[in-house]
Amino acid sequence: MNIINTSKLKKSRCGNLYNLFLEPEFINRTGFYIKLFCLTLCNGIVCVSNRLFLHLNSIRQLKVLVLTISLFLCQGAAFTVDSAKNAVWHNERGLFFLDLNYHVAAIKEFQLAIMLNPESEVSATFYNNLGRSYYKIKDYDSAESAFKKAVKLKPYYLKFRENLIKAYKQKNILNEVVRKHNKLIAQDKNNLQSYIMLGLIYKSRGNNEFAVMYLKKFVMLAPEFEVTRQIKQIIEELKE
After folding, report:
1. DSSP letter assigned to residue 223
2. Which fold has domain 174-239?
3. What is the pLDDT of residues 7-34, one digit of tens each?
């Protein structure tokens, strides 16, 4: 008797269908919500076929299907081809799935948000949320890459840097990162981003003395920055 590897078959079906609908050419040919409906429909077809013909437990996938269709219907007839607005909408859907621990669905939504609005301060949030999703499934390389992009787009938003440091910790490369930023400071004594990064790294390690030293240097060099007030509060907390 031939034994069918249902897990590989399921992965192949889902992967090919998802990849098709994420292609830029497909998005250009159809409206964003038509694309979303097709993606949802294909996910449902795969889940149902697996249940009927391959006897797989598709309850979890069907939950995602129901939630996706519900959100799609709630959007109603307000169809607008506005990439920035649609990016925010996909990001909100991603957060919805992330809260439910449907990490793969969340990743797909954040990727769509980034595709629609890849290079802006708002996009930094999309990349950060994508990194959070990868972090949840312990894909720390992908999480690091996403967090780095978030930091690049919004370098003085501390939460993004703290998330990046968490990824570094999981990869056990914090010492390497510290050496890198010390070299950057040796080359440029006014390297604000290295001072703030080292301060947050030492804070995460519980080395308050070094954390305060580097953060104070940042405050001295950038007293007018909006983030400086927040850093001053951190310094006071670390001194206690």
Report:
1. T
2. 1.25.40
3. 443 444 444 444 444 554 444 444 544 5
